[in-house]
Specification:
Layout (H helix, E strand, L loop, with lengths): L1 H11 L13 E6 L1 H10 L1 E6 L7 H20 L3 H13 L12 E5 L6 H7 L5 E6 H9 L3 E5 L4 H20 L10 H18 L13 E5 L10 E6 L2 E9 L4 H4 L3 E4 L5 H16 L4 E4 L8
Parallel strand pairs: 9-10
Antiparallel strand pairs: 1-4, 2-3, 2-8, 3-6, 4-9, 5-6, 7-8
Helix pairs in contact: 2-10, 3-4, 3-7, 3-8, 7-8
């Protein structure tokens, strides 16, 4: 079986996944006034189902990359057993990338604290960017079954990430000894894990035209347990949107490092003053607050 696996691995130039290193000290989340109140009052963030994001089509792009790679894997194999297993997976992932499949939950950040494109995308009519120390944020989300990773904009790097997922999850099963035809247990186990890992990996892919945002995403891990009390719903554009909560550290050491930028607004000083009072009320002390350098426009 080894002969059929080697060409695929070398074709993808698969390398072991590196340890995540976040080089920026602060990560900023762009949000509305109502959402900012909730973040500060409850010390938590919302992570939305990836199938309901504005750019969910990029998730489909990742699924298509996986489909093409599996089809190349099938073509490179001379063993019917391996071809059959790839066919099974191709069938099993048919609905991956739709709202019918298992969702990953994501929350977006940027190291850019004052970016016009972000104000336009998330803060029309007024908003804020709230910055968190990246190392403490990464530790907090990891303890709750999430990972914090930089999004990938380069196409070759996107191919490699999906290839690593296939190499890690799928290849050991593809090349293993044949199973009885009526023994589907292992197939469903592999398919379930592959679906989870594929959605999680595809959630990090972004179109190159958005690269100035340098987006980071908190993404739920496949192993994250289901907690009904943390699954919530909100409405937007006629849809019911599922989301879950991520608790932020409650410590003063964490919140003293938080920074807030008041976005474009016709009332900047009033907005700055009210946010100062909001943080003092619910966090017990002041945080750094500044005004955007972007002039207000009626977008």
């Amino acid at each position: 079986m080894k002969e059929s696996r080697t060409p695929f691995a070398s074709m993808l130039r698969v390398v072991p996944p590196a340890e995540v290193i976040i080089k920026c000290s602060m990560l900023y989340h762009y949000t509305t006034p109502d959402a900012l109140i909730g973040i500060i009052k409850n010390s938590c963030l919302w992570a939305t189902s990836v199938f309901y994001l504005n750019d969910a089509h990029e998730l489909i792009h990742g699924i298509e990359i996986a489909r093409r790679q599996l089809e190349r894997l099938r073509a490179s194999s001379s063993a019917q057993n391996e071809k059959s297993r790839v066919d099974w997976l191709l069938g099993d992932i048919r609905n991956v990338g739709t709202a019918r499949s298992k969702a990953a939950f994501v929350c977006s950040f940027s190291p850019e604290r004052d970016l016009l494109s972000q104000w336009r995308a998330y803060c029309r009519g007024g908003g804020f960017s709230i910055g968190f120390p990246s190392d403490q944020l990464a530790q907090a989300v990891a303890a709750q079954g999430f990972s914090l990773n930089e999004c990938i904009y380069n196409e070759s790097d996107q191919e490699r990430l999906i290839g690593e997922t296939i190499e890690t999850v799928v290849m050991p099963w593809i090349g293993s000894a044949p199973l009885p035809l009526n023994d589907d247990g292992e197939r469903f186990k592999v398919s379930g894990r592959f679906t989870w890992e594929l959605v999680r990996a595809a959630s990090r892919l972004k179109n190159a035209s958005f690269s100035e945002e340098r987006e980071f995403r908190v993404v739920s891990q496949p192993e994250r347990g289901y907690e009904a009390e943390k699954l919530h719903f909100r409405s937007r554009g006629g849809l019911v949107i599922p989301y879950t909560t991520i608790e932020l550290p409650n410590s003063s050491d964490f919140w003293r490092e938080v920074r807030i930028v008041v976005g474009p607004t016709p009332h900047p000083e009033e907005s700055k003053a009210s946010v100062y009072d909001l943080v003092r009320r619910y966090r017990g002390h002041a945080v750094g607050i500044e005004l955007t350098r972007t002039p207000f426009r009626e977008w």
